[in-house]
Design a protein that fits this description.
Helix content is 37%, strand content 25%. The protein is α+β, with helices and mostly antiparallel strands. Helix 12 packs across helix 15 (565-575), helix 13 packs across helix 14 and helix 14 runs antiparallel to helix 15. The longest helix has 37 residues, at 368-404. The N and C termini lie far apart (82 Å).
């Protein structure tokens, strides 16, 4: 929206069917070193050096015949020797006469894009900006394709000859006219945000720039800013929510400077808004015990526009230190450009104190087995109960939204997104607790093995459906059955732990890759199951550690996990007198192979 008629991108003119100038803007006159009186009625072919003219004649003839609707040529001006790109296209004016609009672009040295004329946009009509030109009466006599598109029309003919008010709601035109006249009379241009009316009478928000041309016509440039307005309204609603939350919330610009904080932050930190607005997040609250390495990581994430989460020790205005857990999320526009960040943080000093006490207890505890039993008991009762409460609460909220919030309301979509995320995280925490409990039972010698004869094929089908549904994605497991299905002896509960862990890993470590594959082979003495994914694989030097408790591969650190799943898989498989092995190629995928006897030997 920054161009004006005197910019090189708007050096334009109009010619008739005889190739004679009928209109020439001021920038074109300056380029050709002649005023409009000298050029009007003059043949366009006369201003170029002779060796280009024949090709120009052919192209103009093709325009008039209708075999092409536009063209661009590299030309050299006769008077100055300047090299230009000439673009001409057909423009049907309202008087019914076929006219042609053209434009020059000066070829500057060291501009690589000019070396390929196919990449050039034919001026005005083919620019991405929506452009219209109206006469002194306010009638449009030129409309380009971009403007037709953003207002939802099919052809320029629907708007040519109509007043400028056709693109606006009646209740807005008087206000727009008053503002425009005032600014045009003062400095010859206008720029502002207005509302527009599309062909279907729907609302569109626009940034409008007007320039008074030297002949009295007005050049209008429009930019659709509807998405920006919608985002502003959503942020306004979000601001109301953030202001009331107990969490501490900060809004940053793209450089990490603080633009806004909520009351929760001011109350907890002791700062006033004036103390911190404009300060950079990197220096806020830093003190003797603040991790410099962590602050450097935060700085790098902000510079790259990446999210970041972690713990940090910082200081209140009074000098009192405290621990926070924070989450920095980039805010992006529709073009995926970072425009700022939102920081949500919570005071976790009490949790860190509890953590310190637990570590002291661990250090002084002599019997590791008893300590594990206590922790497992705590995890079972103190984690599962609040997780169930959270799930119940979010389900109640979901029912309330279904009943009271329209499905098209943006707030509904926001809620559904966060509902899905909360439910997923609850399920993940429940799986972690389950793995810890199973491992604890192993260590305590309280794992009871109860094999029964079962249909493995039905078991696998049900488990695949369950795992596919719980992943909240269109992904599934492609499975093949080879051989004649038979029943096997297995502990159904344990077998669920085995395959839930393997299928979950297959999905988790192969995001955005082809679906995992499960192959079931019914052999003579045993059943063999292979689960193959096309994910990140296991680095070769780390394969020996894969079945070690709490071990996470170096390339999996950014993916949630505890390092317990495969330990449980191995132990439970061996309880079935089975064997587990794997083959992995780094960054190409992993295949786990399990083999179980149909009937287990009595030990």
């Amino acid at each position: 929206m920054s161009e004006s008629v005197n910019d090189v991108n708007l050096i334009w003119f109009e010619i008739d069917n005889n190739s004679c100038f009928t209109r020439i803007n001021k920038s074109a006159q300056l380029l050709l070193e002649a005023d409009e009186c000298m050029l009007k009625g003059k043949n366009i072919e006369s201003i170029f050096k002779p060796f280009h003219v024949e090709l120009l004649k052919v192209r103009i003839a093709s325009l008039i015949e209708g075999t092409i609707d536009s063209f661009s040529l590299r030309m050299e001006l006769l008077n100055s020797g300047k090299k230009v790109i000439l673009g001409i296209y057909i423009n049907d004016l309202i008087d019914g006469q076929r006219r042609m609009i053209g434009a020059f672009q000066i070829i500057q040295e060291k501009k690589a894009f000019l070396e390929n004329p196919k990449k050039l946009l034919i001026q005005l009509n083919h620019t991405k900006e929506a452009i219209a030109i109206r006469n002194q009466k306010g009638d449009y006599f030129f409309i380009n394709k971009a403007l037709i598109d953003i207002f939802g029309y099919n052809s320029s003919k629907e708007l040519l000859g109509k007043q400028w008010t056709a693109l606006h709601f009646p209740e807005d035109t008087q206000k727009i006219d008053a503002e425009v006249k005032e600014q045009l009379s003062l400095n010859g241009n206008f720029r502002g945000e207005i509302r527009g009316k599309k062909k279907d009478n729907s609302l569109i928000y626009l940034e409008l720039s007007l320039t008074q041309l030297d002949n009295g016509d007005t050049l209008s440039l429009f930019k659709d800013i509807s998405n920006k307005k919608i985002q502003e309204k959503e942020l306004e609603k979000l601001g109301m929510v953030l202001e009331k939350t107990n969490s501490q919330v900060l809004m940053l610009d793209k450089k990490g400077n603080i633009e806004w904080v909520n009351e929760g932050y001011l109350k907890n930190s002791g700062y006033n808004a004036d103390d911190i607005i404009g300060k950079n997040i990197q220096i806020l609250g830093m003190g003797e015990a603040t991790s410099v390495a962590s602050m450097l990581e935060i700085s790098k994430s902000i510079e790259l526009g990446n999210p970041y989460r972690g713990e940090q020790y910082q200081y209140k205005k009074s000098g009192l230190g405290y621990w926070i857990y924070f989450d920095i999320t980039p805010l992006k526009n529709p073009s995926f450009e970072v425009e700022g960040f939102i920081v949500v943080q919570n005071d976790i000093s009490s949790i860190k104190e509890a953590e310190k006490n637990i570590l002291q207890t661990l250090e002084s505890e002599r019997n590791l087995s008893n300590l594990k039993t206590k922790f497992i008991h705590l995890a079972s009762h103190e984690f599962r109960t609040p997780l169930a409460s959270i799930q119940s609460s979010i389900d109640i909220l979901d029912l309330s939204f279904i009943q009271n919030v329209d499905s098209k309301d943006p707030l509904r979509k926001t809620f559904e997104r966060h509902h899905k995320r909360i439910t997923h995280e609850i399920r993940r925490m429940s799986d972690i607790m389950s793995n810890i409990l199973v491992l604890g039972r192993f260590d305590a010698g309280r794992m009871v093995y109860n094999p029964v004869e079962a249909d493995f094929l039905n078991f696998v089908n049900e488990l695949i459906i369950e795992e596919t549904f719980s992943n909240y994605s269109p992904r599934t497991v492609c499975h093949e059955i080879r051989g004649n299905p038979r029943k096997i002896e297995m502990d159904v509960s344990m077998m669920r732990y085995i395959f839930k862990n393997l299928l979950s890993n297959a999905f988790k470590y192969s995001m955005n890759e082809p679906d995992p594959i499960m192959i079931v082979r019914y052999l003579e003495e045993s059943i063999v199951i292979e689960i193959k994914d096309y994910g990140i694989g296991v680095p070769e030097e780390e394969t020996s550690n894969l079945f070690t408790s709490f071990y996470r591969c170096s390339n999996a650190e950014a993916i949630p996990g505890t390092g317990l799943g495969l330990v449980i898989v191995k132990q439970l498989t061996e309880m079935h007198q089975g064997k587990v092995s794997f083959i992995s190629n780094h960054e190409k995928g992993t295949t786990f192979k399990l083999e179980f006897p149909y009937i287990q030997k009595k030990l």
